[in-house]
Amino acid sequence: MGDLREVSGLKNNLDLQQYSFINQLCYETALHWYAKYFPYLVVIHTLIFMVCTSFWFKFPGTSSKIEHFISILGKCFDSPWTTRALSEVSGENHKGPTAGRAMVTVAAAAGPGKAGEGEKEKVLVEPEKVVTEPPAVTLLDKKEGEQAKALFEKVKKFRVHVEEGDILYTMYIRQMVLKVCKFFAILVYNLVYVEKISFLVACRVETSEVTGYASFCCNHTKAHLFSKLAFCYISFVCVYGITCLYTLYWLFHRPLKEYSFRSVREETGMGDIPDVKNDFAFMLHLIDQYDSLYSKRFAVFLSEVSESRLKQLNLNHEWTAEKLRQKLQRNARGRLELALCMLPGLPDTVFELSELEALRLEAICDITFPPGLLQLVHLQELSLLHSPARLPFSSQVFLRDRLKVIRVKCEELREVPLWVFGLRGLDELHLEGLFPPELARAATLESLRELKQLKVLSLRSNAGKVPASVTDVAGHLQRLSLHNDGARLLALNSLKKLAVLRELELVACGLERIPHAVFSLGALQELDLKDNHLRSIEEILSFQHCRKLVTLRLWHNQIAYVPEHVRKLRGLEQLYLNHNKLETLPPQLGMCSGLRLLDVSHNGLRSLPAELGLLQNLQHLALSYNALEFLPDELFSCRKLRTLLLGYNHLRQLSPQVGALRALSRLELKGNRLEALPEELGHCGGLKKAGILVEDTLYEGLPAEVRDRMEVE
């Protein structure tokens, strides 16, 4: 045996270093990429799925719509008005007991938060236990009513905004198609490469010079775990993919850009609930996948009928019968009148005021008179000013013989309700509105044949001629007023048939001459030609054929002179020539011995004829706003004169003969150049301080005893 030597030197563990080097080299070069990066692939795919799923919740153009919709949907679901509206419909559609077993909806009473749960709870009961009473209708207070009203406005604006586009629908489809494509890609390559995950990995490394070996058999320590996880991952991806495929099928097997509330309309009886489209329809389809009850309750706020009911309820809360009674006043005709203006509707409480005699409605849209109208047994006068109204047949029958006066004002005369022309007990009909330009010349008006008792007809429009239907009431019409707002009235021949007409107004009709048709009206007592373009009134002579004419109004024209044959109008009692261009008056005017009122104010008169003193019946004389510098003494011979208006002229003195006017009770002198008032004013026994209009300095200049006499009541 040889000698045994102990090996000595530095121990460097070279074998372990070689093993570590070869192990790392084999992991990088020999191990398949799928087995190497499998965990990272799972994370990346999961992130992609998450982004695809939640992108529309983060994108501003879609997330804002979704959040707004969810907010409104929750408020609609919890709103007390929704419960009330559905309860009312349930009560109206309620039927008696039915054979067999029945489903009874148990309403939750725990509060609005559990309203949905309560409405979904179904309980089977025996036929004899079916609830036959309609559900109780909850009362809304004012705050809840205002909240529901605001909710209607939000739903309207949201619908208009969301129905304009389909970005939600498009984005949802795109992200779903992307997820399905991603699913197939993941499934295919995972099934192909899952077998690449193995525990033993053959590896060839050119290290024979160092280690003496070139081929190695390495082991992948996590291969068993990764293999199991890969199959689990594929299983989960398959489940998710099947869900995506079903969603894609759901998206395309029926149109989701249209949503019909047909079943809701049939169930609730709200036939005006509109169908919706685009993104609005798509979101409702989505919410139906959770619970269709949300859409049903949301539909209440799409119904105009429901909104009108709510407005009516709020109106009734705000306008109680007691509050309305405080607004009752006597109108010019002495009738007890209620005037309502610019309300969203007509309160039902109006019809509790059985004492009402006149009703004036202004700027109130879409009025439908309820059956409660039959309670207004004293109603005689109705005014509808820019307030279109519908009247049920039963109410038409009720008003047909009761209503005496009706006023209708609208944009166009064709908007006048037809039932107006069937009120056969009507005494006065006042219409205001325009004819369309193409119909103005024809001026066609509805037939007035049914108005057997009509005595007064007033028409304010732009008619080119007197409507032919006026002759339908020629046998009993006593007053006709045509106000044309400056439009020229060309044809007036129909006036000749109005044999019993007493009063005629042709205001702002563009007339340049007094119409000859007027002279055929033998029963005419008053004629008003205000605001026309009259320059000459030579035809005034023909008024002698109108033997009953007592009032002639030619005011607000451009008349430059009065013809001498005005003397023929001896029966005339009132003559209005104010607001014209008169500079003189004819002496023959003094021969109109029947004149009680003469108004020539707002002209350019510089002097007056002495013959005015012949008007012994004159009681009212208006000379204001002229250029008079003196008054003839003969004027003070009109002993019956009660009103003398001389304001704003150029008078420098007032004749002491004014004291002869014993009946004078009103005297206007303000705006002249007077230096003093005659003390003879004290002889005017009817003249008091309140009846004399003059500068304070002039009044104070009167003797004290005269002033004392005037100030005695």
From TrEMBL:
One of its GO terms (biological process) is cyclic-GMP-AMP transmembrane import across plasma membrane. It is a multi-pass membrane protein. The keyword Cell cycle does not apply. The keyword Cytoplasm does not apply. It is found in: Cell membrane; Endoplasmic reticulum membrane; Lysosome membrane. SUPFAM superfamilies: L domain-like. Keywords: Cell membrane, Disulfide bond, Endoplasmic reticulum, Glycoprotein, Ion channel, Ion transport, Leucine-rich repeat, Lysosome, Membrane, Repeat, Transmembrane, Transmembrane helix, Transport. The chain crosses the membrane at residues 37-57, 230-252. Its main location: membrane. It catalyses: taurine(out) = taurine(in); chloride(in) = chloride(out); 2',3'-cGAMP(out) = 2',3'-cGAMP(in); iodide(out) = iodide(in). Residues 5-248 form the LRRC8 pannexin-like TM region domain. Belongs to the LRRC8 family. This is Volume-regulated anion channel subunit LRRC8E. It comes from Camelus ferus. The lineage of its organism: Eukaryota, Metazoa, Chordata, Craniata, Vertebrata.
